[in-house]
C-alpha cells in the first residue's frame, strides 16, 4: 500500500511538473506576442463603431438581404430597363387590347393594347426616381431645419416647431389634389416638390429630437468649454450621433413616397400619360378589371413589392442601429 | 488678479418660478494660485464656473448682474465669437466624468489634435505630434501607440489625464476643474490631483478647483471659498479655515468628515436640507440649519464681514464661531 501511494504521488508530481513546464512555454509565447495586444494594434482591439456593429448584424439578417436584393434589382431596371425588355412602353396596338399572356408578352396587354410587362418595367424608373429624389429632399430639408431647432432651442425652436405643426395639419391627398391640379408640367418634379413640402416635418421632428438628445452629452459641453464653435459642435460632435434615426425614418418613408406618387398619379394629379407610372397603369386598368385583371395585377404587385422592400429595409436598419434591441 | 468675479448673479427660469442659483458671488484668482470652491450640490459653485467660462445654457439660465474680469477685460461684455476664442486658449475647463466628456467616436489623439488644428491652425500631422507630446506630459504610458485608441479603451484615471491634457493643450492662464476626481478611485484621485497641481506650478496657471471633498482641498488649495445657496459664506486661506472656521456652515462641513479618533461614534451631520433655490429663506439663508441662529439671522442678510485682511465670513456671529 505505502509503495502504491508513493508511486501515485510521484505520478501526480510528474504531471504537475509537466503542467508547469507547459504553462511556462505558453507564457513565453504570449509574452512574445504581447507588444501588439495592449497597444491596440492587434486585430481584437480594433474599436467597433455603431456602424460596423450594425453592418455585422445586417449581413446576417435575411430580411435585409432579401429587401436589399429587391431594391438593387429595382435600381438596376430603372437605370437600364432595356436590359430585360426590348419593347417600348409607348408602342401600343389597339387590336390586341386586353389580351392575356402570350409568347413574347408574358404579362399580356392593357386596355390600349400596350405591353403590360414593358410598362411595368419602365414604371419602376418613375417610382424609384420619385422615391429617391423626394427622400433626399425631405432628408436634407428636414434634418437641417430640425437640427437648427434642436440645437438653438428657444424662439427658433418654437417658430420652427409651429411651422412643422402647420405642415403636419395638411391632409396629404387633399393637399395633392388642390396643389398639383393647378400645375400643368408633366414631369416628376412637381410631384417630388409636393412630397418634400409635406414630408419634411416628419424628418424635422426626428432630427430635432435626436439633436436635443445628442446635445446633452457631456462631451458636447466639454468641447464647447474648450472653444469649439457652433458649426463644429453640430457637424463633428452632434451630427454623427443624431444621424441614425434620420436614416431609418427616411428609408421607411421612401417606400411610402413611392406609394404616394402612385396614389397621386392614380387620382390624375401626379404624372399624366404619356408618362409611364404604376399609378397611371393602375388607374387605367381599374375600369375593366373584370375583363383584364392582369393589367391591374402586375403594376399593383410591382408597387406593393417595391414599397414593402423599402419598409422592410428600413425596419432591418432600425433594428441594427438600435442597441437596445440587441 | 488674473480673474476677478464681482457680484455675479445668475437665475434660472423654471416651472416653479425663478431659481436664484448665484446671488452676488465675488472671488478672485491670481496666476499660480489655487482657489478651492467648496459647497454642496446646488450651492451654485458649478453655475458660477459655467458663467465664467461662458457655457451656461441661456435660456433657461440668465446672468442678471455682475462682472467677470479676466486679464483686464469684462468677459460678460464680449461678443460670443470673442468669448469662444478665449475658451480653450486662455481659460479651459476639466469636467467630473472624463468618460462622458470625451467624444466616444473620435480617437483621443484626434480630440487632442483638434485643439491645435482649431485654435492654432496647425497641420494635422504637426497636431498629431503635439497630441503625443501632451499625452507624454500627463504621463500616459506608450503614448505613441495609444494615441489612436478611443476613450473607452482607457481606465478612468487615464481618461481624466487625457481631459487634463486637452485643457492644458494651449497652456491657458486659467483652469477651472469641476470636481475633477469625484468619479475616480481614491488612490487614482491622489495621482490625478498631484499631476494637476504639478502642471499648474510648472505653467503658473490660476486654478479654480470646484469640489465638495475637503480632503482634496487641504492638500492643494491656497484659498478656500465656501458657498451656500448661491453666496460665498466664508473665504479664507486654507490653513485658517482648517484651524478655526469663521462660519457655522464651514464648521458643520469640517465636523462631518469621518475621523480615525472618533471610531465608533456617530458621525456629525448638518441637520436639515439645503434650501430650494426658488424659495431661499429670508435673512441668512443658513439660519434654519444653524446652531447659532438668532432673531437677527431671520431678518437681516449678513454681509461678508472682514475677519482679517485675507479672510471674510458672512455670519453675524463670526466671532462666536471662530472661538468655537
UniProtKB/TrEMBL annotation, chain A:
The keyword Cytoplasm does not apply. SUPFAM superfamilies: MetI-like. The keyword Transport applies. Pfam families: BPD_transp_1, OppC_N. This is ABC transporter permease. Residues 1-48 are annotated as: Disordered. Keywords: Cell membrane, Membrane, Transmembrane, Transmembrane helix, Transport. Belongs to the binding-protein-dependent transport system permease family. InterPro entries: BP-dependent_transpt_permease, MetI-like, MetI-like_sf, OppC_N. The chain crosses the membrane at residues 63-81, 128-151, 188-207, 242-260, 296-317. PROSITE patterns: ABC_TM1. Residues 124-314 form the ABC transmembrane type-1 domain. Gene3D superfamilies: MetI-like (1.10.3720.10). It is a multi-pass membrane protein. It is found in: Cell membrane.
UniProtKB/TrEMBL annotation, chain B:
It is a peripheral membrane protein. It comes from the Bacteria. One of its GO terms (molecular function) is ATP binding. The keyword Transmembrane does not apply. Residues 5-254 form the ABC transporter domain. Keywords: ATP-binding, Cell membrane, Membrane, Nucleotide-binding, Transport. It is found in: Cell membrane. The keyword Cytoplasm does not apply. NCBIfam families: oligo_HPY (TIGR01727). Belongs to the ABC transporter superfamily. This is ABC transporter ATP-binding protein.
Amino acid at each position: 500500500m505505502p509503495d502504491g501511494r508513493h508511486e501515485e504521488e510521484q505520478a501526480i508530481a510528474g504531471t504537475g511538473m509537466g503542467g508547469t513546464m507547459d504553462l511556462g512555454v505558453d507564457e513565453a509565447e504570449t509574452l512574445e506576442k504581447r507588444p501588439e495586444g495592449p497597444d491596440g494594434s492587434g486585430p481584437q482591439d480594433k474599436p467597433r463603431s455603431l456602424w460596423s456593429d450594425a453592418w455585422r448584424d445586417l449581413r446576417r439578417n435575411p430580411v435585409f438581404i432579401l429587401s436589399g436584393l429587391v431594391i438593387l434589382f429595382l435600381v438596376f431596371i430603372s437605370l437600364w430597363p432595356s436590359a430585360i425588355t426590348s419593347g417600348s412602353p409607348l408602342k401600343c396596338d389597339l387590336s390586341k387590347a386586353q389580351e392575356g399572356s402570350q409568347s413574347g408578352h408574358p404579362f399580356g396587354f392593357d386596355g390600349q393594347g400596350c405591353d403590360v410587362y414593358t410598362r411595368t418595367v419602365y414604371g419602376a424608373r418613375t417610382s424609384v426616381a420619385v422615391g429617391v429624389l423626394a427622400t433626399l429632399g425631405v432628408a436634407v430639408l428636414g434634418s437641417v431645419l430640425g437640427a437648427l431647432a434642436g440645437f438653438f432651442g428657444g424662439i427658433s425652436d418654437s417658430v420652427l416647431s409651429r411651422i412643422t405643426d402647420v405642415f403636419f395639419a395638411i391632409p396629404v391627398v387633399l393637399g395633392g389634389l388642390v396643389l398639383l391640379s393647378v400645375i400643368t408640367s408633366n414631369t416628376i418634379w412637381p410631384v417630388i416638390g409636393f412630397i418634400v413640402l409635406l414630408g419634411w416635418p416628419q424628418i424635422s421632428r426626428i432630427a430635432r429630437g435626436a439633436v436635443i438628445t445628442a446635445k446633452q452629452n457631456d462631451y458636447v459641453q466639454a468641447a464647447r468649454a474648450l472653444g469649439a464653435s457652433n458649426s463644429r459642435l453640430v457637424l463633428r460632435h452632434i451630427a454623427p450621433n443624431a444621424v441614425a434615426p434620420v436614416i431609418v425614418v427616411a428609408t421607411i418613408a421612401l417606400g411610402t413616397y413611392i406609394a404616394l406618387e402612385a396614389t397621386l398619379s392614380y387620382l390624375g394629379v401626379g404624372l399624366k400619360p404619356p408618362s409611364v407610372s404604376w399609378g397611371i397603369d393602375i388607374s387605367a386598368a381599374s375600369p375593366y378589371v373584370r375583363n383584364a385583371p392582369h393589367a391591374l395585377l402586375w403594376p399593383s404587385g410591382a408597387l406593393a413589392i417595391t414599397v414593402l422592400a423599402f419598409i422592410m429595409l428600413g425596419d432591418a436598419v432600425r433594428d441594427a442601429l438600435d442597441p437596445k434591441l440587441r | 488678479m488674473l480673474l476677478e468675479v464681482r457680484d455675479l448673479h445668475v437665475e434660472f427660469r423654471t416651472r416653479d418660478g425663478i431659481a436664484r442659483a448665484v446671488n452676488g458671488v465675488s472671488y478672485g484668482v491670481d496666476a499660480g494660485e489655487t482657489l478651492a470652491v467648496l459647497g454642496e450640490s446646488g450651492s451654485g459653485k458649478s453655475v458660477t464656473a459655467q458663467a465664467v467660462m461662458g457655457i451656461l445654457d441661456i435660456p433657461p439660465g440668465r446672468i442678471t448682474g455682475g462682472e467677470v474680469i479676466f486679464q483686464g477685460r469684462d468677459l460678460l461684455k464680449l461678443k460670443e465669437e470673442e468669448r469662444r476664442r478665449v475658451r480653450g486658449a486662455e481659460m479651459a475647463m476639466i469636467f467630473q466624468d472624463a468618460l462622458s466628456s470625451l467624444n466616444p467616436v473620435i480617437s483621443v489623439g484626434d480630440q487632442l489634435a483638434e485643439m491645435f488644428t482649431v485654435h492654432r491652425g496647425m497641420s494635422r500631422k504637426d497636431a498629431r505630434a503635439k497630441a503625443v507630446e501632451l499625452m507624454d506630459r500627463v504621463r500616459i504610458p506608450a503614448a505613441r501607440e495609444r494615441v489612436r485608441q478611443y476613450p473607452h479603451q482607457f481606465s478612468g484615471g487615464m481618461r481624466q489625464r487625457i481631459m487634463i491634457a486637452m485643457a492644458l493643450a494651449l497652456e491657458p492662464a486659467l483652469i477651472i476643474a469641476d470636481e475633477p476626481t469625484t468619479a475616480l478611485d481614491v488612490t487614482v484621485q491622489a495621482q490625478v490631483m498631484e499631476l494637476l497641481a504639478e502642471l499648474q506650478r510648472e505653467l503658473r496657471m490660476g486654478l479654480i478647483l470646484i469640489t465638495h471633498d475637503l480632503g482634496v482641498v487641504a492638500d492643494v488649495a491656497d484659498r478656500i471659498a465656501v458657498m451656500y445657496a448661491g453666496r460665498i459664506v466664508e473665504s479664507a486661506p486654507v490653513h485658517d479655515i482648517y484651524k478655526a472656521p469663521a462660519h457655522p456652515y464651514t464648521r458643520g462641513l469640517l465636523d462631518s468628515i469621518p475621523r480615525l479618533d472618533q471610531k465608533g461614534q456617530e458621525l456629525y451631520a448638518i441637520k436639515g436640507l439645503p434650501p430650494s433655490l426658488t424659495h431661499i429663506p429670508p435673512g441668512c439663508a443658513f439660519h434654519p440649519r444653524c446652531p447659532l441662529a438668532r432673531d437677527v439671522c431671520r431678518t437681516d442678510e449678513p454681509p461678508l464681514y472682514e475677519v482679517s485682511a485675507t479672510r471674510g465670513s458672512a455670519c453675524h456671529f463670526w466671532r462666536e464661531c471662530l472661538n468655537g
